Amino acid sequence: MKLVVVLLAGLLSAATLAVIVAVGLYLYFGPQLPDAGDIGTTQLNEPLRIYTADHELIGEYGTERRIPLTYDQIPKRQVYAFVAAEDDRFFEHPGVDYQGLMRAVVHLIETGRKTQGGSTITMQLARNLYLTRDRTYTRKIKEMMLALRMESKFSKEQIIELYLNKIYLGERAYGVGAAAQAYYNKPLDELTLAQAAMIAGLPKAPSAFNPIANPDRARQRRDYVLGRMHDLRFISDAQYEGALAAPVTAGQDHGNNKTNPVRYEAQYVAEMVRQEIVSRYGDKAYTGGFTVTTTLSSSRQAAADRALRRDLLAYDARHGWRGAETTIDTGLLDDATKRRGALDEIATRGGLVPAVVLGTSGSTLRLATAQYGEIDLAAAQMPWLSAGQSASKLGKRGDVVRLAYTGSKDKPWTLAQIPKVQGALVAMDPHTGAVQALVGGFDYNLSKFNRAIQARRQPGSSFKPFLYSAALAHGFSAATMVNDAPVVYDSPNLDKAWRPQNYSGRIYGPTRLREGLVHSRNLVSIRVLRRVGVGNTIDYVSRFGLPADQMPHNLSLALGTASFSPLQMAQGYSVFANSGFRIEPYYIQTIEDGRGDTVYQAKPQMACDDIFDCPMIDENGQPLDSSNLAPRVIDADNAYIVGDMMRDVIRHGTGRGALKLGRDDLSGKTGTTNDQVDAWFVGFNANLVAISWVGFDTLTPMGDAETGGHAALPMWVDFMGQALKNTPTAIPPKPEDLVTVMINPDNGQRSLDGSGIAEIFRPDRIPSREQAERAGPSNSTSEVEQLF
């Protein structure tokens, strides 16, 4: 009896001591800890995400990759996988698992070593939110106290929801939503059981169990999680066996960039958006969870990327082979694992896959890649190899070269090299200014210089439609005769006399204005500019949104010696496409903050004509007013006639390469500068304007044959073929007051007998019969001689 009393007294004393210690710990540590209510306002650092108009991800910026999900959005098997792996009594304990804690204490007494046992999901969350990762008793006590506070104020569902959104899982992914994208490139609810278990195995050691970097160790950890789920009856025998047999698939759905969820390349636009959001919100741009929807069409953006890269590679194939990009130690080549490791250090650029030369046999080049194994290239797959030449001319064992994927079943690969020439492509809706596609170079990771908006290059003859529009506004018609004859200009500002020539070097004599544009006659353009006046022309062209300070105040302006970016040219040409209205380019449609509230909505001024049916109310249901309408800057008559002359550029002139598209609604103009330094093609229909430019960043000649029609037009044709696929014909509407009259093509006057060719005139510019009778059969009239 006495022993029982002693035992009871001892237990009571121990209990009293435990209470005193607990109270003491609470009084000491409690004031140092945050109130559990603060957890409700915990900020999850969400990155800036940028999407196309059809909601395809094109960019993500921030130190933490995160996709917050509610508890209801998280699949139950994902919850069970984490519970099985980290805390199987999560739904039973009050935040501290005393059973697990006692096991940890016993292990400490027996071995003298601390373990990680006894740390519940709630305790892990407390540590992640408020504490350091130092393995000390003090931190452990704080963990338990915070866990108890949390469990007293929040439900289990709320706690595990925050835990699964907060926890770090490797690959810059915080939370299960981001981890699903980082490892499998798909939403969390589309993961298989095996994939869910793989993610649940990561918290213990995200680097060691990373399924991309360490697939074998990751599989072992995954199988452990599956075993725990099976033991706890979270999954059936069949589910368990099926998941165990599943291969490790992390990183296999991402193409060459295994951990990047971005599927549509638009890095130049993404960077434009990033800079804009940072300018608005500062560093909060990277943590505030902003979602930006751009105006890009994902399909047209993809088409633009492909078209630009194909065009630059085609240019490169027309010029010299520069040799190996680098070399790999030949001692590594016979070991497939070592060879693959060396190749993995070389990034794919512009879609070009790195490959190492294993050897040559006659005209065959044997290569190895990291992703696609060994590949043999025949002579026809190597643009720089002539018939009968040995493949050893292009590479020796150990040389690293590039391969381009062609998509052909018979010959899927071709030898390539990263081009030194560069390019840009911009496509825009001419009625709103919405940028539909924009590419600023061959590969953003090779050069972040955005040539679509930052490069100011001479447009060459692609400037001439603006000049001819000015001429129409100053009394000309499309049939006005201009003498294509030599001109010589002396000036004290010139070292020698300026003797401009046509590209062909030929002289054509009296030429109708339409023919001058169709065949890009330089001498005609100079005489037109001299007649209209340089000052008048610059003032007029400024209406198109092209800055006056970027145009030279001399007659060289007629040859396109101004300096404009491709985006500026797209804005200018939109005036012709939309019947005379100036629109402003824009690329951000909406900005939403981390709460999902819209903090910015674009309200572009719109060009309203018979093609584009302007909405009569805005997104809030309010009537549109004049502030929503783009200003008219040239007459519809003028815009239509210039556009019609540019349709002839494609039908009969320097843009004939676009005929392969089989459309009759395309207007366009080539542009080539002196020594073929810049090559352009600018074209449109009523619904889309597209600009292609090719050139070196260093203002280096591209070669004698590299004109706008040869170097830039194929890119434009490639893009427009995809962009306008299955779209109806869209020609800007013809103004009702325009009149079609038959004219004599030799003198531009009205045909007296009804023969000749048709030409379009404004009512006040129709040639009279009297003028035709005065002109007679001669190509030169007194009126022409007086003017030119």
From TrEMBL:
Catalytic activity, as annotated: Preferential cleavage: (Ac)2-L-Lys-D-Ala-|-D-Ala. Also transpeptidation of peptidyl-alanyl moieties that are N-acyl substituents of D-alanine; [GlcNAc-(1->4)-Mur2Ac(oyl-L-Ala-gamma-D-Glu-L-Lys-D-Ala-D-Ala)](n)-di-trans,octa-cis-undecaprenyl diphosphate + beta-D-GlcNAc-(1->4)-Mur2Ac(oyl-L-Ala-gamma-D-Glu-L-Lys-D-Ala-D-Ala)-di-trans,octa-cis-undecaprenyl diphosphate = [GlcNAc-(1->4)-Mur2Ac(oyl-L-Ala-gamma-D-Glu-L-Lys-D-Ala-D-Ala)](n+1)-di-trans,octa-cis-undecaprenyl diphosphate + di-trans,octa-cis-undecaprenyl diphosphate + H(+)
Topology versus the membrane: Single-pass type II membrane protein
SUPFAM superfamilies per UniProt: beta-lactamase/transpeptidase-like (SSF56601), Lysozyme-like (SSF53955)
Disordered: annotated span: 761-788
Gene3D superfamilies per record: Biosynthetic peptidoglycan transglycosylase-like, DD-peptidase/beta-lactamase superfamily
GO molecular function, one term: serine-type D-Ala-D-Ala carboxypeptidase activity
Any Gene Ontology biological process: proteolysis
UniProt keyword annotations, A-Z: Antibiotic resistance, Carboxypeptidase, Cell inner membrane, Cell membrane, Cell shape, Cell wall biogenesis/degradation, Glycosyltransferase, Hydrolase, Membrane, Multifunctional enzyme, Peptidoglycan synthesis, Protease, Signal-anchor, Transferase, Transmembrane, Transmembrane helix
Subcellular locations according to the entry: Cell inner membrane
InterPro entries named among the record's database cross-references: Beta-lactam/transpept-like, Glyco_trans_51, Glycosyltr_51/Transpeptidase, Lysozyme-like_dom_sf, PBP_transglycosylase, PCB_OB, PCN-bd_Tpept
Glycosyl transferase family domain segment(s): 56-230
Domain Penicillin-binding protein OB-like: 321-421
One Pfam family this sequence matches: Transpeptidase
Pathway: Cell wall biogenesis; peptidoglycan biosynthesis; Glycan biosynthesis
EC nos: 2.4.99.28, 3.4.16.4
GO CC terms in record: outer membrane-bounded periplasmic space; plasma membrane
Record domain Penicillin-binding protein transpeptidase: where: 423-685
Function summary: Cell wall formation. Synthesis of cross-linked peptidoglycan from the lipid intermediates. The enzyme has a penicillin-insensitive transglycosylase N-terminal domain (formation of linear glycan strands) and a penicillin-sensitive transpeptidase C-terminal domain (cross-linking of the peptide subunits).
Family of the protein in this entry: In the C-terminal section; belongs to the transpeptidase family. In the N-terminal section; belongs to the glycosyltransferase 51 family.
Protein's UniProt name: Penicillin-binding protein 1A
The species this protein was found in: Salinisphaera japonica YTM-1
